[in-house]
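Re: [ENG-882] Designed sequences occasionally contain unexpected residues at chain ends

Forwarding the minimal case from QA. Structure tokens:
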């Protein structure tokens, strides 16, 4: 196992094709937590939610098979965090507005992806610390999205769910460096940010492309890139 947290991303667009959607759904196992995911996909009303949940499942399936890990080991903690029983392999998934991301490695990790939306200063006033709220007031929607993604990634890293108040820790966003200007991403940028709480301080890797923001939190630094996973890889029978 590589002792760095690695990141994957994929778009759900191609799965809007009903044939590909059904093909992907058929690849998900029919037991345990996998069965629960398949059943939940069928209950979701919004097409985008169904697509994102399906692709998240396919991404995890591909990841486990490529690392020779048993699909049967997948379980969910009491607080809702998926994990592998009896294996030193950690992962976390997130999705937003047509993209699914995954962080994985040999230590616990959390990942979140957010798309910039309308002004959210009313939410920031409730859930952010005073200094975080001040940053949102100064820099606007983009800063709100960054802080929200960082906070979500830390909560998911800790695995404590909603029992961890968002005001109980402080995030300090870093300054972006451009990784590439490739057409696949638009301008892909990254930075290291700091998250401080009473029990620990950790660093988080941020990525930015177009109007999306991604934050990855763990006890180890992430690689300074994020890899795209193709539809072909998701549908491969390994």
């Amino acid at each position: 196992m590589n002792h760095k947290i690695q990141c994957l991303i994929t778009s759900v667009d191609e799965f809007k094709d009903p044939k590909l959607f059904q093909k992907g759904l058929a690849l998900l196992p029919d037991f345990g937590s996998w069965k629960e995911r398949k059943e939940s996909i069928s209950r979701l009303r919004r097409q985008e939610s169904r697509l994102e949940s399906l692709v998240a499942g396919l991404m995890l399936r591909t990841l486990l098979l490529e690392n020779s890990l048993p699909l049967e080991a997948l379980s969910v903690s009491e607080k809702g965090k998926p994990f592998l029983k009896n294996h030193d392999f950690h992962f976390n998934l997130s999705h937003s507005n047509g993209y699914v991301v995954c962080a994985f490695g040999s230590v616990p990790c959390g990942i979140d992806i957010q798309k910039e939306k309308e002004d959210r200063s009313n939410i920031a006033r409730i859930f952010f610390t005073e200094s975080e709220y001040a940053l949102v007031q100064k820099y606007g929607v983009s800063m709100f999205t960054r802080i929200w993604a960082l906070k979500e990634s830390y909560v998911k890293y800790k695995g404590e769910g909603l029992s961890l108040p968002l005001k109980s820790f402080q995030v300090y966003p870093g300054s972006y460096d451009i990784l590439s200007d490739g057409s696949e991403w638009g301008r892909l940028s990254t930075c290291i940010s700091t998250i401080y709480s009473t029990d620990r301080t950790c660093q988080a890797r941020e990525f930015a492309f177009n109007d999306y923001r991604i934050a990855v939190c763990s006890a180890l630094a992430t690689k300074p890139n994020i890899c795209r996973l193709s539809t072909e890889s998701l549908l491969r029978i390994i």
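QA comment: On inspection the terminal residues look reasonable. The longest strand covers residues 188-197. Proposing we downgrade this to a documentation issue.
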